[in-house]
Amino acid sequence: MSSGIYAIAHIGDFKLFVGEASKLSQKWPPILTQLNNGTFPDPVLQQVWNTEGGKRYFSFHTKTEIISDRDILGIEELLALG
Fold first, then answer.
1. For residue 52, what are the CA distances in angstroms to 1, 44, 64?
2. pLDDT tens track, the chain, 82 positions
3. Does the predicted model carry a pTM greater than 0.90?
4. Backbone angles phi, psi at 13, to 5 degrees
């Protein structure tokens, strides 16, 4: 998979944490490691992760996956990013 935009969705709270990576297929496992270790660089996402109990409340999505779901609120703004 090539470079591009990804989103970490906080399930149940309708929040997306959006980022960009050069190798999307290799991005999620290191993010999980950082979040589990308490070392993720975004303090807001890290706090939500700590509070909500981990990965069962989060999912990882690429821009391609998000584009196909027109029910996402604010999809137009997300697509305008890249």
1. 30, 12, 27
2. 467 778 788 877 767 777 787 777 788 888 889 989 999 998 988 888 888 766 677 888 777 777 777 666 566 665 666 5
3. no
4. -115, -5
In angstroms, the Cα distances linking 25 to 12, 20, 38, 67 are 25, 12, 22, 17
Location of structure tokens 């297929």: 25
Q: State the DSSP H helix or E strand holding residue 66, giving kind and residue range, or none if neither.
A: helix 63-67
Q: Are 9 and 58 in contact (CB under 8 A)?
A: yes
Cα distance between the two ends of the chain: 16
B/e letters for 3-23, b = 16+ CB within 10 Å, e = fewer, are: eebbbbbbeeeeebbbeebee
Residue 50's φ and ψ, nearest 5 degrees, are -65, -40
Backbone angles phi, psi at 46, to 5 degrees: -60, -40
